[in-house]
Amino acid sequence: MTHDEAKSLLRIRDLSVRIPTARGTIWPLDGVDLDLGAGETLGLVGESGSGKSMLVRSIMGVTPAASTLSGELTFDGVDLAGGRTEQARGVWGKRVAMVFQDSMTSLNPVVRIGRQVSEGARRHLGLTAAQARERALDLLDLVGIPEPRARLAQYPHQLSGGMRQRVAIAMALACDPDLLIADEATTALDVTIQRQILDLLQEIQATRGMAMIIVSHDLGVVAGRTDRIAVMYGGRIAEESATRTLFAEARHRYTRALLGALPTLDMPRHSVLPTVPGSAPDPVGRPRACRFAPRCPAAVDRCRTERPRLLSQGDSGHRFACFVPVEPDAAPASAHAAAVAAPAAATPAAGRPPRLEVRDLVCRYRVPGGTIHAVSGISFAMPPGETLGMVGESGCGKSSAAKAIVRLQQAASGSVLLDGTDLLTLSPREMRRQRTRIQIVLQDPIASLNPRKTVRGCVAEGLLIQGVRGAELAAKVDDALRGVGVDPDIHGGKKAYQLSGGQAQRVAIARAMALDPDVLVCDEPVSALDVSVQAQVLNLLERLKAERGLTMLFVSHDLSVVRNISDRVAVMYLGTIVELGDADQVYSAPAHPYTRALIGAVPVPDPTRDHASTPRLEGQLPSPLSPPSGCRFRTRCPMARQECADKEPPLVEVAPGRLAACHFPLTGSPEPAAPSPTARMRQ
Amino acid sequence: MSATMTTGPGTRPAAAEDEDAPVRRRPPVSLVLCSVWVVLVLASTLLAGLLPIAGYDEPVADGATPPFESWPEFLGTDSVGLSVLSRVIHGAQLSLAVALLGTVIGMAGGVALGTAAAYFKGWLATVVNLLSDVVLAFPGLVLLLAMASVTRPSVWSLSAMLGLLSLPSSLRIAYANANVQLGRDYVLAARALGTPAWRMIVREVLPNIAHSLVAFGFVMVATFMIALGALDFLGIGLPPPRPSWGGMIASGFDSIRTRPYLVFVPAAVLLLTVFSFNTIGDRLRERADGRGGHL
Amino acid sequence: MSGTTFVAKKLSHLLAVVLLVSLGVTALLSQGGTVAAQILGPNANAGQIAELERQLGLDRPFAERYLSWLADAVRGDLGESLLTHVPVTEVITNGFAVTFELMVLGLGIALLVAVPLAAYTARNVGGKIDTIATGVSSLFMSLPSFVLAIGLLYVFAVRLGMLPVSGWVPLTQDPVGNLRSAILPSLVLALHPMATFFRVLRSDMITTLQQDFVLTARAKGLNTAYILLRHALRPSLTTLVSLAGLSIGSLMTGAVISEVIFRLPGMGSAIVNAVTQRDVPIVQGVVLLVALTYVVVNTLVDLLQAVIDPRVQTS
Ligand SMILES: Nc1ncnc2c1ncn2[C@@H]1O[C@H](COP(=O)(O)OP(=O)(O)OP(=O)(O)O)[C@@H](O)[C@H]1O
Ligand code: SF4
Ligand code: SF4
Ligand SMILES: [Mg+2]
């Protein structure tokens, strides 16, 4: 124990939560030990289902009704595991408070903001209505909400996502808590907004000296902002240490694998990512074994028969639960990535006629209150074999564009030329024939498979529509499944909900690939997946692309992923492409101010990086109902001048092969903010 | 709640593997019992002619006898000595036929219109919406009364009328369910494969809403049984001589002070049957709702 | 879509509904020339029937009859009874007070029982009260109103002699007597909606209680009653409110049945009598009134939705 237990604010010993279900008892938490000192910031990371949320919910006393808690859980000496005692109720909501993930759902849609912010204070501090109102005003002001007085009477849906999350933070601060828990509090936000919120949390923590737990699945989010990190896996803590130590010399096999599977902004493009085979463990039961054993390459017999304890390494406060830990001086996991060079990706043949060309594509949605200009005339051309990455914040029109290209979405105007044929003017019958040449993979893999169909049935559907029948059909289906690494004999008869996310996404890719398309459009294909599974799917896409010479349009909000997989990137802002060029160049020397801000906001899994050094993008995305005149970015651009409001900057070549839509493009030396490949955290 | 086991780190007690036994799901007794009852009613109705019971218009006694006094007439006889048992069994024939037929008509129409409106949207959805509001604004029983005032009801006309009256509800259920499904990503994926409209509705959407629709079908049969009972009770249902439960209740109502069993035997049978159809529908719906969870 | 076009759209939709309903019922009732024959009895000859039809205007083309009826209706004249020659409006106003009181009482009882019970059981799913209430509600849903009416009549009036068997005491005459005569009939109306309201609200409440914002409220350390009332109830009311609007139809059905069984002088008895005597104008008038009520109530319900959920206004 490095932590002086006397100083410990939160003390957790052997905490378990069990929930009986029809399939057996599940153990979302299985013997967790943790301490947190006053004023300390802890990062709690792990993939979905690892028990992060259950742990913080236990602390808040809001575990599900069917669950049973056991073990020791005290806050400043008050027992929080013993039910709703008088003392415990004096802690929950008052001395510990929580900010939840999605402010759209975690704020009550029919209760005014003023009441939601202040009701905790009224309950715990006994404020009068007038005092509560004043307090709400102060809090809204503190979290940086403009015109707080007007907000008091508003409802959550009248605010933007970032503003709502600020309200949620104000709400949590209502009683001046000693511990603030942020459970994926920025996951639902865009990177630029995420950056604002994380900075806000850090400022507040610093000025108030409260302790904080930042729960996240994203190692980048916790890297620069925490003192210590605990990694969870299968309801247990796998490893816990000071933040820098964890990134530099993780000892647990799972932590290593997790760090390695993460594509980063500074690894070579098209790297084959080291993957973790398999998927997250079944939460049923509490095996006397290492939870990671089925997926662990280093597992020995002991791992399968004995539960590794979370033991401290010397006096360093570095604890991990692994029988065969990685040697402290072993090469960092990501070195693999560089070593295992990608199979020489078919270099896009410039000069040849483009495979896919998009010209002046426009998409609009009519909604109550006006017209949303989702895509406002974008153009680009992709030579055969190219992967074009398309990035941008939520609502910038990426998905609308992707869907319009494959005609899942009616385009208002423009053309989409596939080897010269305009898809948007084809009759439904002609289009049906072209569908064998252009296919799409969607974001949510399980939702994109018909729950009534078997895996084979899903993959067969496209072929059936094209008239393939009988033995040929069966053979093609099985081939397609094998091609994505799904064994048709084992999984062929399953339904979508019986698959893991990664498997389901493979099946969805098989469904598209069964038609042997030339162009594959991927709309956020890995966003719904855990990091360790994401790497598998990214590698699969790279392989398919190399084997079949696919031309790929890869849409994602994750800049690291896009950089790794793309040859060129297009950056979108509010329905327009603001920059387009070679991926390495765009990332290392952005020409458009928005690109620079976007890249600067990406949370980097590197505790040595000083995230405060890059300029932060203030404000939020303007309403797509009435985009700003001239340059759409001018309301947030630090360099905006009069000209920007008057004239819309065209997308023009600013350097060979580089297009940017800015009157005053950035030129010169590469941005200091973008890390050079040598500035790796795990050197 | 929590038994606080204070143990130091790493000294946890042996894992309690035996606590991991699956929680046994309670067998749906109600579903079994109700299905048995429905099968019993259907079978005895279909096979009424083969059963060793009296005809519904042949007196078996000189006058009224209360239930449980004689065998096989354990349900008693009415004032003219007709067998209550026989009349109860025969009394279900027409109502069941109309209720089932009406359900088929109502569901077929509602599902076709509802799914099509959900898929094509636009003017079709507007028209369908308007028509269903019109039918809803008609007070159902009043309309049936009005119809009975101009024509003598037949099995067909009644079934058609009930089917029509129930159209808004079946249509809305089909529309709402189809709409939810059509918003799902798998429909988008199917469109990307070039799935034509009919194939989308029949092969992608319908299988996903079938559970809810079948469940609703059972509830619809129950509703129709009630409506038909009310019509027969008011004397404007299907004309005699065939007995009906509602008609039996109405004629028993006159002598409710002296011979309440003449009301309560057919009433109990009607209640049980309606209850069974409703319960089966409910259980099926619960199953449909709870499908595909990850827990 | 702006607010005014929204209202205009809504109103035109409602107008269309009322017109189509009246058209439909007129068309239905004009099937066959049976009205005159019915009035004159079985001994009338064809000439007499034709003569009466001419007098009643039944020989004119359907469209003409409908339009003139409609024109009169707009002016508030719904014609008169074919048999008694009492104006239809008078027949309706006489019966309306009774039927209206029954429907209001029925709806009130249903909501008063269903809402608290649903809120309580949603919080305690699987508990004793929940099990009983859910079971009883499925029983109520399966209980035909005429069986229920007879059962209540038998137990309370015949067996226990506690309440009048039949008859109506107007509210203005004797409020207590009025309540005594109205209680059983309005219970008949209430039970079915009560059961459906309970189920719908219970299941919506359960869904609401699973929402993140309830978790947030719990994490703020607020107490359970406060969360149920302030946070969970209002967002759960949407379906219930629409359902209450739609229940006009089933309340009307219940009113017809209980007015017949308890022999009350309401619109329900009036229409049953009119139907058996083929007194078309009365049937037309009552149907029009019911359709109008339905339409008005459901418009109010739409407005109420916007009050309950502020998001409705903007979308
Ligand atoms: N069906 C729709 N109806 C109305 N507006 C829509 C619809 N789909 C998208 N929009 C709006 O169009 C704009 C662009 O949306 P789009 O989904 O293309 O963005 P995106 O870049 O894919 O965002 P995300 O990262 O959140 O997926 C947004 O303002 C969005 O709200
Ligand atoms: S304990 Fe064994 S199975 Fe678990 S991570 Fe360590 S080596 Fe792998
Ligand atoms: S055009 Fe002006 S406002 Fe737009 S990005 Fe360039 S400098 Fe900024
Ligand atoms: Mg998108």
| Total number of beta strands of chain B | 0
Class derived from helix and strand content of chain B: mainly alpha
By DSSP, the count of extended strands of chain A is 24
Uncertain runs of chain B with pLDDT below 50, 5 residues or more? Answer: 1-24, 291-295
Largest sheet of chain B: none
- What's the SSE pattern of chain B? HHHHHHHHH
The fraction of residues assigned to DSSP E strands of chain B is: under 5%
Multimerization status = heterotrimer
Overall, the morphology of chain A is globular
Q: Average pLDDT of chain B, to the nearest integer? A: 79
Indicate the percent of residues in helices of chain B.
55-70%
Instruction: Walk across the major sheet of chain A and give the strand order.
Output: 6-7-8-3-9-10-12-11
Overall mean pLDDT of chain A: 87
As a whole number of angstroms, the C-alpha radius of gyration of chain A is 26 Å
User: Tell me about the biggest sheet of chain A?
Assistant: 8 strands, mixed
Query: Cα-atom Rg of chain B, whole angstroms?
Result: 26 Å
Provide the CATH top-level class of the largest domain in chain A. Answer: Alpha Beta
CATH topology assignment of the largest domain in chain A:
Rossmann fold
Q: Total domains of chain A, how many?
A: 3
Number of helices of chain B: 9
Output the keywords.
heterotrimer, A: 683 residues, alpha/beta, Rossmann fold, eight-stranded mixed sheet, 31% helix, disordered N terminus, disordered C terminus, C: 315 residues, mainly alpha, 15 helices, 77% helix, binds adenosine-5'-triphosphate, binds iron/sulfur cluster, binds magnesium ion
How would the blueprint of this fold be written?
The complex is a heterotrimer of chains A (about 675), B (about 300) and C (about 325).
Chain A: E1 8-21, E2 24-37, E3 41-45, H1 52-60, E4 68-75, E5 78-79, H2 86-91, E6 96-99, H3 103-106, H4 113-125, H5 129-142, H6 148-151, H7 161-172, E7 179-183, H8 191-208, E8 211-216, H9 219-223, E9 228-233, E10 236-242, H10 243-249, H11 253-261, H12 301-305, E11 311-313, E12 318-320, H13 334-339, E13 356-367, E14 370-382, E15 387-391, H14 398-405, E16 413-418, E17 421-422, H15 428-434, E18 438-441, H16 455-465, H17 470-483, H18 488-491, H19 501-513, E19 519-523, H20 531-548, E20 551-555, H21 559-565, E21 568-573, E22 576-582, H22 583-588, H23 593-601, H24 642-646, E23 652-655, E24 658-660
Parallel strand pairs in A: 3-8, 3-9, 6-7, 7-8, 15-20, 15-21, 18-19, 19-20
Antiparallel strand pairs in A: 1-2, 1-4, 4-5, 9-10, 10-12, 11-12, 13-14, 13-16, 16-17, 21-22, 22-24, 23-24
Helix pairs in contact in A: 4-5, 4-7, 5-7, 7-8, 16-17, 16-19, 17-19, 19-20
Chain B: H1 29-46, H2 84-120, H3 122-137, H4 140-150, H5 155-182, H6 185-192, H7 197-234, H8 245-253, H9 261-289
Helix pairs in contact in B: 1-2, 1-9, 2-3, 2-5, 2-7, 3-5, 5-7, 7-8, 7-9, 8-9
Chain C: H1 3-29, H2 34-40, H3 46-56, H4 62-74, H5 88-123, H6 128-141, H7 145-159, H8 175-209, H9 212-219, H10 224-233, H11 237-246, H12 248-261, H13 267-276, H14 280-308, H15 311-314
